[in-house]
Amino acid sequence: MKNKLLIIGASGHGKAVADIALKMDKWQSVNFLDDNEAITFSLGLNVIGKSTDVIEYIEDYEIFVGIGNNTVRKKLQENLLANGASIPVLIHPNAVIGEQVEIEVGTVIMAGAVINCCTIVGQGCILNTGATLDHDNLIEDFVHISPGVHLAGTVKVGHGSWIGIGSIVSNNINIHSECKIGAGGVVVKDLSETGTYVGVPVRRVRE
Ligand SMILES: CC(C)(COP(=O)(O)OP(=O)(O)OC[C@H]1O[C@@H](n2cnc3c(N)ncnc32)[C@H](O)[C@@H]1OP(=O)(O)O)[C@@H](O)C(=O)NCCC(=O)NCCS
Question: How many Cβ atoms from other residues are within 10 Å of residue 143's Cβ?
């Protein structure tokens, strides 16, 4: 393990990620890269370069992508992995993780989140504040589960999907890749095609 951490993205989500890294107390230093030159420090931590500079830090730093947008996060993380970067998993000390849970690299588990037993969370995911995943869920890569979302047991969420704040997904539901669920949506049937879904229960409003 390297003793320095570099977070790409110093705005809202990046700051929340840095806060978790500080609380984990695993790294001697935590810094940011950000493409906005106006941001020179964030959460009291220095911004030491731009995202395009990242390759020069790969030898000395563990690197984490602190960008909320699933597509951007995926692009950056895949580039890092292709270049041999060491990417940690970040878990807030006040998250609850059950037995036989697997969490892959580049995923952040925020404060108050709960993952019940036998659930798999892929790479580059965000399990945001106070969200819960019950038993036997499968969360594919680069998914964002927003704050306060609750997934019942045996839910599958496809690659790149975004479950909006406060949504609820009933048990044994499959959500297709690249879906967006609007804030407060309730999913009670499989979503078998990509699209934006809103409401209670959700209906598809965009492809
Ligand atoms: C679903 C969402 C992504 C749609 O955004 P969009 O593609 O810009 O769509 P629009 O705002 O044009 O909305 C499309 C329609 O769905 C409705 N709609 C949008 N979000 C809705 C929601 N959460 N619940 C119910 N209806 C909603 C709009 O009123 C609109 O209806 P209309 O066509 O009858 O006027 C967005 O509204 C949303 O809910 N985002 C989640 C935000 C979130 O979770 N943030 C937390 C980040 S940590």
Answer: 26
